[in-house]
Inverse folding.
C-alpha cells in the first residue's frame, strides 16, 4: 500500500529502528528503506546467531538467509552468485555488540 504525504519534511535519524526507517519527501510516495527487511531479520535472529555463528558473516536477501561464512569475500561471492549483482543483499558480521569505529 502506498501512502502520499503532503507538506511533510522529515529526515531519518541514524539509530532509528528498522520498523521506523522510511524515506519521506514532500509530496512523494513513501517507500521502505533499502535493506530494511534484511536488517530486521538480522535483529530478530541475532541472539540465536551469537550463540551459533559468532564472528561469521551472514548473507541475507529479503527474508532468505543464504549461509554463514568465515571471510567477507566468500560471503560476497556467494551472495552475487545466488542473488545476482543487480539485487540488494546484506552481508553482516555476527557480534554480541556492534563495533564502533572512529575516523579521525
Amino acid at each position: 500500500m502506498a501512502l502520499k504525504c503532503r507538506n511533510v519534511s522529515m529526515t531519518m535519524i541514524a539509530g532509528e529502528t528498522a520498523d521506523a526507517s522510511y524515506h519521506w519527501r514532500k509530496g512523494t510516495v513513501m517507500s521502505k528503506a533499502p535493506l530494511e527487511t534484511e536488517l530486521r531479520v538480522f535483529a530478530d535472529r541475532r541472539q540465536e546467531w551469537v550463540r551459533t555463528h559468532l564472528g561469521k558473516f551472514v548473507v541475507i536477501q529479503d527474508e532468505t538467509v543464504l549461509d554463514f561464512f568465515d571471510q567477507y569475500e566468500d560471503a560476497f561471492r556467494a551472495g552475487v552468485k545466488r542473488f545476482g549483482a543487480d539485487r540488494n543483499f546484506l552481508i553482516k558480521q555476527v557480534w554480541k555488540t556492534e563495533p564502533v569505529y572512529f575516523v579521525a
